């Protein structure tokens, strides 16, 4: 999920910059003031620590670090992005923005365009770079015919989360929603056949905002002026789709600033 250190970096590793304590299913105290559930993710910039309680989703770790980056990067004049990213043969970089489940991972995994990353990036004066070391793909209904790159990336070393399987044959069933529709596969980015290593690119030429508009407010495809793109990016009109959040069983219209308001620690204008 995160960029793994080399053997030499491990050898010279000193004090960590940030520490994650993940207690898995151990619940938060729901009688604490302002708590509404047994799940909590608490991040302290002062102590440089994060504590995860009451959830076993591995994604809470990656999104916790992403939230931290949404604070650190703008402070350095860099733009943190909730987006997928790939690059063409001519060096033309494309960003895909959208909430979870809107197609960032699927669209960025284009066999003809090397993959820079599927979810978390930073845009600096030098171009874009991935802040993850792997992918965290939804795999409900995964088929080799429709998503061959992701299908082929799942091999020994991949962690499958909430995915059902036959305990006798050990055959995985990607169609099953017995546990949840939010099934995931976490694998190193080098498992993608077309991954661009290191995961960096130039300045984006194309910026695609995946609105997932389930209510016909927007045209199916719109080419925006720079001003329209800025407005839509800040307002972030989109829809939450079923299977990513508890309680969301059908599309719900929402506004998610910068297509990632859940991770923003600073005002969207910042």
From TrEMBL:
PROSITE patterns reported for this sequence: PEPCK_ATP
GO BP, sorted A to Z: gluconeogenesis
Pfam families: PEPCK_ATP (PF01293)
Catalyzed reaction equations: oxaloacetate + ATP = phosphoenolpyruvate + ADP + CO2
Functional pathway: Carbohydrate biosynthesis; gluconeogenesis
Keywords from the UniProt entry: ATP-binding, Decarboxylase, Gluconeogenesis, Lyase, Nucleotide-binding
GO CC list: cytosol
Root EC class: lyase
GO MF term (any one): ATP binding
Keyword Metal-binding carried by entry: no
EC number per UniProt: 4.1.1.49
Entry's family note: Belongs to the phosphoenolpyruvate carboxykinase (ATP) family.
Name used for this protein in its record: phosphoenolpyruvate carboxykinase (ATP)
Species in which this protein is naturally found: Gonium pectorale (Green alga)
